[in-house]
Every structure is written in C-alpha cells, then in structure tokens.
Amino acid sequence: MNWSVTAAKGVRRQVERLPERVRERLFALLLEMEQAGPIRGNWPNYGKLGPRRHHCHIKKGRPTYVAVWEEADGTVRLVEVTYVGTHEKAPY
User: Which of 30, 32, 74, 77 is the most buried (most CB within 10 A)?
Assistant: First the structure.
C-alpha cells in the first residue's frame, strides 16, 4: 500500500527557495516515502525525533539541508513534511 505524502504550506514556500539539486533530492525522498513509508534508514543521518517524527539530511556539507516529517497512521496513511531547509534552523 502506498503512503500519501503532503507538504505543509510553509514547506512549499521553503522548497521554492531551495537550490535545484537539493530540490531534486527532496522530491526523490518524497517519492521514496510514497512507495516505502516514512522510515528511511537508507538516507544520510536518518533518525527518529519522536514516536512519529523523523528527519534526515538531504545534502551534507555547507550548508547542510535537512527534511523533518511526521507520520499519521489512521484510516489514511499520511506523511506530512514539516520542514525543509538548512541544518541551523531545523526544528529539533
């Protein structure tokens, strides 16, 4: 079963300001989450931030870009990406 992946309104604005290469990697991550779910241990620095909150690095180096997402498992399998941006401003 596929997961439904959505992005918060603020994330959509953040994506517009990302460098093209980072944006492409984010879309690859989102596609992977749709197909295989929110636990992405194959991505760099993946970690759980809480029971249903996850993060990973989209791009290492300077600046480091991070994605933070939450999963909700009810009748609709939903993963909402809550943050994409530099490591310094990440909400964790």
Answer: 30
Q: What CATH number does the domain containing 39 carry? A: 3.30.2310.20
Indicate the pTM of the whole model: 0.83
Total count of domains within the chain? 1
Q: Are 80 and 10 in contact (CB under 8 A)?
A: no
CA distance 87 to 91: 9
pLDDT single digits (tens) 12-23: 888 888 889 989
- Look at residues 87, 7, 81 and name the one whose alpha carbon lies nearest to residue 40: 81
What is the span of the domain harbouring residue 79? 4-89
SS (H, E, C) the chain: CCCEEEECHHHHHHHHHCCHHHHHHHHHHHHHHHHHCCCCCCCCCCEEEECCEEEEEEECCCCCEEEEEEEEECCCEEEEEEEEEEHHHCCC
